Amino acid sequence: MSLSSADIAHLEAVLAQGKKPKVVFTDAAGQVAGRTGKVVALDPAGVDDFVTVAFGSDELPFSAAELRLPAPGEGARRSAPRQRSGAPSGPGLLPDDRPEPKPKPEASERKPVTEPEASVPEPAPAKKKAAPRRAQAAKHPELTVTLAYEDGEWSIGATRGARTVVKGAKVAHANALAMCQAAGSDEVAEVVSEVVEKIRSEAAEEAARLRRQLEEAEARLAELK
C-alpha cells in the first residue's frame, strides 16, 4: 500500500495549513519500513522522489511507493533514518548495523500471583471384588432337611441350595421321634419332649372325650332294651 493521488492531495492540503502531516515508510523504503516521519515539502509535479520527509535530524526525498498514511492509532513509533544510496550521510543518520532500540520495560511489573496448590484428593479405597460363584455357593448347604410339627402332624421338607426338593411330606409320629433321637442333641431332645408331652395331653383329652361319648351311647342302648 502506498500514497494514492487522494493521499497526496490530502498531504498537500495539510502542508498548506502550516502543519507537517505524518507518514509511514512502506516495505519499499527498505531499512526504515514501518517507521514514521513528517512531510515537510511536497512537489506533485515531481516524477520520482517528490515527497520530502523529516525523520531524526535528516530530511530526505521519497517516492509515493515508499510512503503511506498512518492508520488510526498508528504513528507513535519512533522515526529512524535510513541509508539511501546516493544521499549524503549527515550526523543525524544512524549506521546500518546499529540495532533498533528496544522498548524500555515498565517501571513496575506485576508480580505473578501464586495460586494455592490444589489439594489432591486421596484415592478412594478399592472395592473388594465379588467372591466367585463357587465360593458363594459353598456358603449354602447342598441339601437341607427340615422336620416340622404342626396341627398334630409331622412333616418333612428338603431344599437343595435355593430350590425346594420336598415340601410338607407327611411323616409318622414314631418315625419323626426316631429321627429326633438319631440327632443325638440334648437341645433337640428337650424340644421334642415338650412336643411329645403336648401330643400326649391332647391324645388323653381326646380319649376321655371319646370314652364319655361311648358311655353315653351305651346308656342309650341300655334304655332301649
Summarize the structure.
The protein has 225 residues and is α+β, with helices and mostly antiparallel strands. It has helices spanning 5-16, 133-139, 173-183, 186-223, and strands spanning 22-25, 36-42, 51-55, 58-62, 67-68, 144-150, 153-160, 163-171.
Q: What is the overall shape?
A: rod-shaped
Strand count? 8
Give the helix level as a range of percent.
Answer: 25-40%
How many H/I helical runs? 4
Strand order of the largest sheet: 4-3-2-1-5
Secondary-structure-based class equals: alpha+beta
Spans of 5+ residues with little confidence (pLDDT < 50)? Answer: 77-98
End-to-end span in angstroms? 153 Å
- Main sheet attributes: strand count, strand direction, barrel closure: 5 strands, antiparallel
Bin the strand percentage.
15-25%
Order of helices and strands: HEEEEEHEEEHH
Rg calc: 61 Å
Q: What's the overall average pLDDT, rounded?
A: 75
